[in-house]
Design goal:
Layout lengths: L7 E3 L6 E3 L13 E2 L6 H13 L17 E37 L2 E31 L6 H7 L8 E2 L2 H4 L3 E2 L6 H23 L4 E28 L8 E6 L5 E3 L5 H21 L5
């Protein structure tokens, strides 16, 4: 039996991997593209082991010495979004220029006159329009992997995208989209507008700018479901704590996780710092 949120399963009799082709379900789009795994499960475990060892000393005990546990490769659904953006903007543009000014100062008990070169900025208003095609925006389509986690794993090398066929994901766990098209479209539009803002900021003339504002109109939107390769690992670091979930980009090996901080370690470090400061204050005569 296939779990409702999954597209793939294994035969219960021979353990052979299989892909179940569902009949079309309203609101659940079919994948258009898939991006293959380039990182083996052993390499993923090695990346996580290095990541664990590099965590802060303020993380909970056991995390830095923990060994990665169960590893599972998952094809996570995401939307690949592109759009034509037309932005109207306005900003203040700063042009620097230099002047020589005279000033008075005291040298050897005497008042003298000196000159110096100073940089000043002349500001002028600028308004205009930018038309740009925004492509390769990835947003999650999974309730199990939020968009912030997906962004932490990016970038993916989209040059490796292939047209989806069942054979591409046979033998792997593949999740169906669990977020609605409207939810994903809202995420994608927000990210596209942010990219336009970044492009405008980098494109401003002059030596500096301030007060940049823009309004974007988005046309010719395209959203396609693609399956992204992600390794999911469970790290058991303490008997009284749930396993730490760590994610690995199945292409690049980028690692993301949220190692919990130990409050008593932070408090101990703060107390030690205050003690050192107090001793230093006393040694410098502050206690007199």
């Amino acid at each position: 039996m296939l779990e409702p949120a999954l597209r793939t399963t294994r035969c219960p009799y021979c353990a052979a991997p299989a892909v179940v082709e569902r009949p079309p379900v309203p609101g659940v789009p079919e994948p258009v593209f898939a991006l293959g795994f380039a990182l083996t499960h052993m390499a993923a475990k090695e990346h996580v082991a290095r990541w664990l060892r590099s965590r802060s000393r303020f993380t909970r005990s056991g995390i830095r010495s923990a060994a990665p546990g169960e590893v599972r490769g998952v094809y996570v659904p995401a939307y690949l979004y592109s759009v034509l953006a037309q932005a109207r903007y306005r900003a203040s543009i700063g042009e620097n220029y230099q002047e020589t000014e005279t000033y008075r100062t005291t040298e050897n008990g005497k008042t003298v006159t000196r000159t110096r070169t100073v940089t000043r900025t002349e500001w002028r208003s600028l308004e205009g329009e930018l038309v740009s095609y925004v492509a390769d925006v990835l947003v999650t389509a999974s309730k199990g992997l939020d968009n912030a986690e997906l962004e932490a794993l990016e970038p993916f090398d989209l040059r490796g995208l292939a047209r989806y066929t069942p054979a591409l994901i046979s033998g792997w766990v593949a999740e169906e989209p669990s977020l609605t098209l409207a939810q994903c479209q809202e995420l994608a539009r927000k990210e596209a507008v942010e990219r336009v803002g970044g492009l405008l900021s980098r494109s401003m003339p002059g030596d500096s700018h301030r007060g940049l504002e823009h309004q974007s109109r988005l046309d010719w939107e395209a959203l396609d479901v693609c399956l992204l390769p992600v390794w999911v690992l469970a790290v058991k670091y303490a008997e009284d704590a749930p396993p730490l979930r760590v994610l690995v980009n199945g292409q690049t090996g980028a690692v993301h996780g949220e190692a919990p901080i130990s409050s008593w370690k932070v408090l101990s470090a703060l107390v030690a710092l205050l003690a050192v400061l107090a001793v230093g204050w006393l040694l410098t005569g502050g206690g007199r």
